[in-house]
From TrEMBL, chain B:
Residues 109-444 form the Amidohydrolase-related domain. Transmembrane segments: none annotated. Signal peptide: none annotated. Residues 18-43, 460-480 are annotated as: Disordered. It comes from Parvularcula marina. GO terms for molecular function: hydrolase activity, acting on carbon-nitrogen (but not peptide) bonds. It comes from the Bacteria. Pfam families: Amidohydro_1 (PF01979). Keywords: Hydrolase. This is Amidohydrolase. InterPro entries: Amidohydro-rel (IPR006680), Metal-dep_hydrolase_composite (IPR011059), Metal_Hydrolase (IPR032466), Metallo-dep_Hydrolase (IPR051781).
Length: 429, 480
């Protein structure tokens, strides 16, 4: 109990701006993810020093600066902030409310040139809900419209509640192969790959000569804007997340990456374990839902809870997402289930921290507790992957964060249902 | 009084309707020799043919036992005999039958079989394609005449995955497109070639109803297109049902009085609703908003029926006192929210706040072929969130949210849902604390028979659909 009170006091002082220290020391923590994605590392009884928004030290035998505000973690786990690799966070406030959902794209002629960054809503209540569960960064993107294969550029955002949460405007392009791609191309896999090839060929032609491309453009080819956007994929400036599920589709997608020379990130990939060695050899990271184990379509027949562990064993970089927005806070549960089915604990933790940072090209700034990185730090009440654990203290860029959200306000209001002097709407504001 | 009882006379439970295969109609007509008797509809025309599988006597010792009655027993023993729970208690106080097989479960946990009150397994199976989409008869706001059991595909691999998560009984509901969606059915999670082989003997039927956005969205171009339209639809349905019930009661009464009378024509829709008015079919209503739940409770009083459970009940925490007072359970997710406006106010403390009311009845449900595989984990989160605001929920209480409470709301608590002598031998042995993410169901007994063993590939069912495919077992299976 004592610990909780000191935590609250600690957070409150910082938030109200009263004598806000720029230097913090989290002592006596079980530091997890002190290395890198390949070798995550952990240090028991460690200290993290945060100065001016950056981790300046993480380890044992660390000298605590005189001016540091000290927080004793009491042996509790300390991790980097969680990093969600795929969702509609800040785009999708309510999934089935058209005016509160900018993740879906209805009938619209452009695709690859769309930018999630243009629709980011920094006031989304899903941000504090996710942050209070330890999520500090997210890659967010649009869903490809019904007739198109490309979802446009996903953005990287920080969940600190700021008006401009963008940290990378165009972190990855997205495309659909597998059955969801096929549905958009004559309901046929071969057609969907032909459609994809044509799009990249369009992009190549556009890059060579935009004027000629426009002159010769005919119906069915990419509009110039989309061809231009895919040029960044061909040049290797922007990676592309391609969803593919079956082992054969994954192999075809690896071939396409070879053919066109783009940076591939596989998404979905329920049968990735069957071709784990090929994926590892191509050095392609994979974003999976480790809880998928049902054959929803014929491309999922090999779905198994062992996918994550088998990919890890083959040396593939694995990150976790199910594509859902409102519960990206459940990434630790995904990771815990991966561990229950054979993955290493640190490997599973890396899948929700360091690996996404690496996938989206910000591994030098985020994803671990290494000195020099942005101070996104979470102190947990227990094992971060355990169902009963919750964040106790959260820093983003070295600033203590509020653990409040619209949901905590609702709970405060309805904790007590007894009739009071005024209606409920007067309380808990 | 006789009027209401006559409609019920055919059977009070499915058992009396010939759960073992008897023809209730003939039973009824034989009642009075030589006299004309009422020709009442057969209330159980698709009877359960479930027969428990053979079992050995088993003693599970040394485990921490969460009984489902609110008790935790350290170093406990659970004895299964003849398919039933024979004894439960401290290991050194329980009589162990001669020749019983002993399972040393030291360090492990034992719970009643897990019960999911909200599943669409079989009616929305995997593979999930249009030809298997059999869960929503979204053709009319009132489809009370459809029965979920007629849509269930017994080969849904989801049943097997759920078994690996400790699920021993589940209620399968029609979807929520309609005001009156149709009849639910309760099954035992034992694979069968037919649905009848899976049907839980003697379980009452349920009636699925739906509040709010779904019916509005589906029928918006006709009616209902508003929430007031929804209520008009429900009330019209109940008024028709009451009139229908009366017709049959009058008919039966005439026959009883020796008068000549022809039976009224049957109406499947109204037959189900009339049985719900009689309390013979339990009402389970999909409802998110607290204010709508309050309206529904008033409606149930208007027509004299009871709502057994609100399903999803995302805002149950705002009306937890009302639900407790009315004796209505709330079946909830641990943390789903935000997918539609009526789910916008979801909070993770929902179940705990419902449970915290005196006589509060909280249930964690899945409504998902993924969630059903780990209702223990969903419960763990809901318990932790309650404890984070100081509600002091113990594991022995939390386990009731997925055992005895759903059993109560489904009307099967007298048969399963707790580890008490005389109940069905529906038991799960967990590798550790079931509220840890790392624990898994190791052995699952249904009516005393070992139906799932994580460490024995032979005790691990595979549906026809997955046979001969690359398909993997629930815990990694082939190729591991």
């Amino acid at each position: 109990m004592k610990k909780l009170i000191s935590t609250l006091a600690f957070g409150m002082a910082a938030l109200t701006g009263v004598a806000t220290a720029q230097t913090y020391a989290i002592t006596n923590g079980h530091l997890m993810m002190t290395g890198d994605a390949a070798d995550p590392g952990e240090i028991v009884n460690g200290t993290v020093i945060i100065r001016d928004g950056v981790i300046v030290a993480a380890g044992r035998n660390v000298t605590i600066p005189d001016n540091a505000e000290v927080y004793d973690a009491g042996g509790a786990p300390v991790t980097p902030g969680l990093f969600s690799p795929i969702s509609g966070l800040a785009l999708e406030e309510i999934e089935l409310a058209d005016d509160a959902n900018d993740r879906r794209v209805g009938g619209f002629p452009l695709s690859a040139s769309l930018k999630a960054a243009d629709a980011i809503n920094p006031d989304s209540t899903v941000i504090p809900v996710s942050r209070s569960a330890g999520v500090t960064r997210a890659h967010v993107g649009l869903l490809a419209g019904g007739d198109t294969q490309f979802g446009g550029c996903g953005a990287l955002i920080v969940l600190d509640g700021s008006m401009d949460p963008l940290i990378k405007e165009c972190a990855a392009q997205t495309a659909l192969l597998g059955y969801s791609g096929a549905r958009r191309a004559g309901d046929n896999r071969a057609a969907s790959i032909a459609m994809f090839r044509r799009a990249l060929t369009d992009a190549r032609n556009y890059a060579r000569d935009p004027y000629l491309y426009n002159q010769r453009w005919t119906e069915g080819h990419l509009p110039a804007e989309d061809a231009d956007a895919l040029g960044d994929v061909l040049s290797g400036d922007v990676p592309i997340i391609i969803s593919a599920f079956s082992a054969p589709d994954i192999r075809r997608t690896l071939d396409l990456a070879d053919e066109f020379g783009f940076d591939l990130i596989l998404y979905g990939a329920v049968e990735a374990w069957r071709v784990a060695d090929e994926i590892a050899a191509a050095d392609v990271p994979v974003i999976i839902d480790p809880m998928t184990n049902l054959p929803y379509l014929w491309e999922d027949m090999g779905a198994t809870l062992a996918n994550a562990a088998r990919l890890e064993e083959a040396g593939v970089d694995v990150a976790f997402a199910n594509g859902e927005t409102h519960n990206i806070r459940l990434m630790p549960q995904m990771a815990g289930n991966a561990v229950a089915n054979g993955m290493s604990h640190l490997g599973a933790l890396a899948a929700i921290t360091a690996v996404p940072a690496r996938i989206f090209g910000v591994e030098d700034q985020l994803g671990t507790l290494a000195p020099g990185k942005a101070a996104d730090v979470v102190v947990w009440t227990g094992d971060p992957l355990e169902l009963s654990s919750r964040p106790r203290v959260i820093f983003i860029d070295g600033k203590p964060q509020s653990l409040d959200s619209r949901q905590s306000a609702l709970v405060k209001r309805y904790r007590n249902l007894e009739r009071r002097d005024l209606p409920t709407q007067y309380y808990g504001q | 009084m006789r009027k209401t009882t006559i409609f019920l006379a055919a059977c009070l439970t499915l058992a009396a309707c010939g759960g073992s295969g008897d023809d209730s109609e003939s039973k009824e007509t034989k009642k009075k020799d030589g006299e004309a008797v009422a020709e009442l509809p057969d209330k159980n025309p698709y009877p359960s043919t479930y027969i428990r599988y053979p079992s050995e006597d088993v003693v599970i010792t040394g485990a921490t036992v969460l009984t489902g009655t609110g008790t935790l027993i350290e170093n406990g023993a659970v004895v299964l005999h003849d398919g039933k729970v024979a004894a439960v208690g401290a290991a050194d106080e329980v009589d162990i039958p001669d020749g019983a097989e002993t399972i040393d479960a030291a360090g492990k946990f034992v719970t009643p079989g897990i019960i999911d009150i909200h599943s669409h397994l079989g009616v929305y199976p995997a593979p999930s394609v249009s030809s298997t989409s059999d869960g929503n008869e979204a053709t009319s706001p009132n489809t009370a005449g459809v029965w979920a059991e007629h849509s269930i595909w017994p080969q849904d691999p989801g049943f097997n995955r759920a078994l690996a998560g400790g699920i021993t009984s589940l209620m399968i509901l029609p979807g929520s497109a309609n005001l009156f969606g149709g009849r639910t059915v309760t099954i035992k999670n034992v694979p069968g070639r037919t649905v009848q082989e899976m049907k839980f003997p003697d379980a009452p039927y349920g009636l699925k109803m739906a509040c709010g956005e779904n019916p509005k969205r589906v029928y918006g171009k006709s009616s209902p297109s508003t929430r007031m339209g929804n209520f008009r639809g429900y009330r019209d349905g109940w008024i028709d049902a009451a009139a229908y019930k009366k017709k049959w009661d009058v008919y039966a009464e005439k026959i009883e009085d020796g008068e000549d009378a022809d039976p009224p024509s049957r109406d499947l829709k109204l037959e189900t609703l009339a049985m719900a008015l009689d309390g013979e079919i339990l009402v389970h209503m999909h409802c998110y908003r607290a204010d709508e739940m309050a309206q529904v409770i008033d409606m149930s009083e208007e027509f004299g029926y009871k709502v057994s459970s609100f399903q999803h009940a995302v805002e149950a925490y705002k009306a937890a006192d009302l639900l407790a007072k009315n004796g209505t359970c709330a079946a909830m997710w641990a943390d789903w929210w935000g997918f539609k406006l009526e789910a916008y106010d979801g909070v993770r403390e929902n179940a705990a706040l419902v449970a915290a009311q005196p006589e509060g009845c909280a249930i964690i449900h899945s409504d998902s072929d993924v969630g059903i595989q780990r209702l223990n984990q969903e419960t763990a989160k809901a318990m932790a969130d309650g404890n984070a605001i100081g509600l002091n929920i113990t594991p022995e209480e939390a386990i009731t949210w997925i055992t005895s409470n759903p059993a109560k709301a489904m009307g099967i608590l007298d048969q399963t849902g707790t580890l008490e002598a005389g109940k069905m031998g529906d038991v799960v042995i967990w590798s550790g604390d079931p509220f840890s993410v790392y624990s898994q169901a190791e052995k699952v007994f249904i009516d005393g028979a070992l139906m799932y063993d994580r460490n024995d590939p032979n005790i691990n069912p595979r549906s026809d659909f997955e046979l001969g495919q690359i398909g993997q077992g629930p815990n990694g299976g082939a190729g591991k």
